[in-house]
C-alpha cells in the first residue's frame, strides 16, 4: 500500500505542477506547451508502475511499464518486421491509393452534378459499414498477405477523403468564381489558382482523419487472416498466449507510428496552408 500512497502523492504533485505551468505567465511559450504533456505522461507512467507493483496486479491483467520496456527492447526485430508488414505495406500503401483515388474522384464529382447527387449518398452508406463485416470479405478476395489489408484501408479512407475534398472544392464564393470568369480563366486555371488552394484546409482535414483510419483498418484486417507477422496478428496470438507484455509492446509501436504519421501530415499542412487563419500564431 505504500507504493499506492506514493502514486497518489505523485499524482497530486504532477497535477499541481501542471496547473502552475498552465496558469503561469509563461504558459504560451513553446517550452511550457511541450513540458505540460511530457510531465503528465511521465506522471501517468510512474503511477502505473507503482500501482501495479503495489497491488501485485498479475501480468495477464496489466503488466508494469518496466516489463513492457524490457519486452520492447528484447523484441525489436519482431516489432520491426510487424511494423513493415502492417504500416508500410498495408496502411501506407492503402492510404496513398485510397486518398489519391478519392481526390481524383472528387474532381470528377465537382464537375458532374450527377455524380455529386448519386455518389455521395452511396459513399455515406459505404462509410457507415462496419469494418468487422467488410474486412473478412476483402481478405477472401485479395488473399491473406498485405494486399487485402491495403484494400481494407482503401475502403476506409476513400469516402472521408472524398467528402472533405468535395466540400473544399465548393468552398469558394460566387464572387470569387465570377472574378476568375472576368479574367477569362478556364476551368483548370480557376481550379489550380483559386479552388484548389481554397480547398487545401479541407483536403488536409481528410488526410489527417485518414491517417488514424488507415492504421486501425490495417491492424483490424489482420485479425481475419494474415501471414505469420503483422501487428494485428501478433496482438491476436499474444493474447491467446497470455503474453500481455508483447501486446502492449505492439500497442506502443502502433501508437508511435500513428502519432508520427499524423504529425508528418500536420507539419506538411502547416507549410502548405500557412496563409490560413488556423495556422497563424
From TrEMBL:
Its main location: membrane. Residues 80-269 form the ABC transmembrane type-1 domain. PROSITE patterns: ABC_TM1 (PS50928). It holds the Pfam family BPD_transp_1. One of its GO terms (biological process) is transmembrane transport. It is a multi-pass membrane protein. One of its GO terms (cellular component) is plasma membrane. Keywords: Cell membrane, Membrane, Transmembrane, Transmembrane helix, Transport. It is found in: Cell membrane. The chain crosses the membrane at residues 32-52, 59-80, 92-110, 122-144, 150-169, 202-226, 246-272. Coiled coil: none annotated. Belongs to the binding-protein-dependent transport system permease family. This is NitT/TauT family transport system permease protein. It comes from Ruegeria marina.
Amino acid at each position: 500500500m505504500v507504493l499506492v500512497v506514493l502514486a497518489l502523492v505523485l499524482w497530486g504533485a504532477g497535477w499541481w505542477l501542471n496547473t502552475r505551468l498552465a496558469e503561469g505567465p509563461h504558459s504560451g511559450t513553446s517550452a511550457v506547451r511541450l513540458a505540460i504533456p511530457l510531465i503528465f505522461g511521465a506522471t501517468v507512467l510512474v503511477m502505473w508502475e507503482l500501482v501495479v507493483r503495489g497491488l501485485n496486479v498479475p501480468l495477464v491483467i496489466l503488466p508494469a511499464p518496466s516489463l513492457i520496456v524490457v519486452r520492447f527492447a528484447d523484441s525489436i526485430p519482431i516489432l520491426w518486421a510487424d511494423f513493415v508488414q502492417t504500416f508500410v505495406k498495408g496502411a501506407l500503401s492503402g492510404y496513398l491509393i485510397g486518398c489519391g483515388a478519392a481526390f481524383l474522384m472528387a474532381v470528377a464529382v465537382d464537375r458532374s452534378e450527377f455524380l455529386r447527387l448519386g455518389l455521395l449518398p452511396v459513399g455515406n452508406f459505404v462509410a457507415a459499414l462496419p469494418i468487422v463485416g467488410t474486412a473478412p470479405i476483402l481478405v477472401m478476395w485479395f488473399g491473406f498477405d498485405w494486399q487485402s489489408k491495403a484494400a481494407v484501408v482503401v475502403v476506409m479512407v476513400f469516402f472521408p477523403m472524398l467528402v472533405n475534398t468535395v466540400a473544399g472544392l465548393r468552398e469558394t464564393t460566387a464572387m470569387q468564381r465570377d472574378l476568375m470568369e472576368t479574367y477569362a480563366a478556364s476551368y483548370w486555371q480557376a481550379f489550380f489558382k483559386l479552388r484548389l488552394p481554397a480547398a487545401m484546409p479541407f483536403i488536409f482535414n481528410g488526410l489527417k482523419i485518414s491517417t488514424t483510419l488507415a492504421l486501425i483498418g490495417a491492424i483490424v484486417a489482420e485479425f481475419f487472416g494474415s501471414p505469420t507477422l503483422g501487428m494485428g496478428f501478433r496482438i491476436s496470438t499474444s493474447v491467446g498466449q497470455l503474453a500481455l507484455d508483447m501486446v502492449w509492446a505492439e500497442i506502443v509501436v502502433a501508437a508511435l507510428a500513428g502519432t508520427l504519421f499524423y504529425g508528418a501530415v500536420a507539419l506538411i499542412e502547416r507549410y502548405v496552408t500557412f496563409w490560413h487563419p488556423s495556422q497563424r500564431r
